[in-house]
Amino acid sequence: MELVSILNLSYLVASILFIVGIKQLAHPKTATRGNLLGALGMLIAVVATLFDQAILTYDWILVGVLVGSLIGIIMAIKIQMTAMPQLVAVLNGFGGIASVFVAGAALQLSIPKYAFAVNYQEIVSIVFSAVVGGITFSGSFIAFGKLQGFITEKAVRYPGDQLVKILVGLAAVGLGVYGCLEPTDESIYWILSGVSLLLGVFLVIPIGGADMPVVISLLNSYSGIAASATGFVLNNNVLIISGSLVGASGIILTQIMCKAMNRSLTNVLFGGFGAVATEMKDDGDFYSGKVKSTSAEEVAMLLDVARSVVIVPGYGMAVAQAQHTVRDLYQLLTARNIDVTFAIHPVAGRMPGHMNVLLAEADIPYDRLKEMDEINSTFENVDVVIVNGANDVTNPLAKTDPKSPIAGMPILDVGNAKTVVVIKRSLSPGFAGVPNPLFIADNCLMLFGDGKKATQEMITALKES
């Protein structure tokens, strides 16, 4: 069997493993196996590629494998779950810039051939890799900066910002067309890459922290599309297939996130095009004299007579690393024959599925996790809702104030329950930067403190009751 046939067969096996792995990632019980299958597929693809006859020396390849593996191991050990969205953003960015450099190297090798005949499939793919890869790299690191706090989480808007984006976008299109018509001018490629990097900054910087889950899933899709385009440049089937899988799944996830946040895909793609630029300001009197504080002992008394409890996890729970303590509370309540479920908003946290991953890590049964559409109609029959570190996803302003930045966003209707207990460090606003009327509702009690410590105090009080 020829080497090319062996390579393509290996790539086919790797692609099948990718597809099966993604399928198994859909459920926590099979997610670990799915992750291993995907990793095995990538190992097969990498090993098969190393047997390609076009490789002249393995020295730098081995250095890259060793350095990359070391960095990957360190990140896997050191990165906390709360920082996972930032890690995803960084990895998306690296995928994008890798596509830019690989396509640029392919262009250098092909320029002598283009003097005689131009391969337009190749040159169009090269140009496309530069544009999408550049946008992905800079956009991902802007998202990383917003998530990490290096850059303000607020939407950065200025007069004429949309016009600037349009002009930079047109410049990228113009340079791309010129690069296809004059493929022997290598400088055009790098200028195009630079303009694309600039466009990525302009596209993401106007997007606020509340929309970051959508941005991350979209940039993940971009990284896949860039990789697929690079696959066409290199005539590499596994890169085309795997990039297409990432690109398609990312777009589907982005659409789901947009629906969950009442955002249009156009709004996300163009960085707030047509979005409400105004932002509500708390005048200092919004909560004054209206908040009812409580204690762990009082909450324990409520839980002791409750028959149904819903726990709403949020980013505050993730920051406090309270998921295991929340599991202990869940086990204690269920041991008392109290029906306990978890209400999951699609964009709670800072990336899609953030809360699902945290709760699965704590071994909370997956059938106890209820999506927003499933649980919203049942809140009026719930005795106690415990909101642990969530804010915007429970904010009634989404339904009552059309001028609010979260106007129209579907929320968890926790206010319909008999009693709501909100665990929060302070009355500070969420990512959207607006106050939450839920905190001053008649049936709402505020338990101020760290999510993990407050939950542990409730457990102690329950055991003593």
Short account of what is shown:
This protein has a 6-stranded parallel sheet with strand order 3-2-1-4-5-6. It has helices at 3-24, 28-50, 59-78, 84-114, 120-148, 161-181, 186-204, 212-234, 237-261, 265-269, 296-305, 315-320, 323-335, 354-361, 372-375, 397-400, 451-464; strands spanning 308-313, 339-344, 369-371, 384-388, 419-424, 444-448.
How would you describe this protein?
The structure is a single chain. The chain has helices at residues 3-24, 28-50, 59-78, 84-114, 120-148, 161-181, 186-204, 212-234, 237-261, 265-269, 296-305, 315-320, 323-335, 354-361, 372-375, 397-400, 451-464, and strands spanning 308-313, 339-344, 369-371, 384-388, 419-424, 444-448. The protein is α/β, with parallel strands linked by helices and 465 residues long. The protein has three domains: 1-57; 79-270, no CATH class; 296-464, Rossmann fold (3-Layer(aba) Sandwich). Strands 3-2-1-4-5-6 form a six-stranded parallel sheet. Strand 2 (339-344), helix 14 and strand 3 (369-371) form a beta-alpha-beta unit. Helix 13 packs parallel to helix 17 (451-464). It is elongated, with a radius of gyration of 25 Å. The N and C termini lie far apart (74 Å). 43% of the residues are buried. Mean pLDDT is 87; it is low at 273-283.
Structure keywords:
465 residues; alpha/beta; Rossmann fold; 3 domains; six-stranded parallel β-sheet; 17 helices; 6 strands; elongated
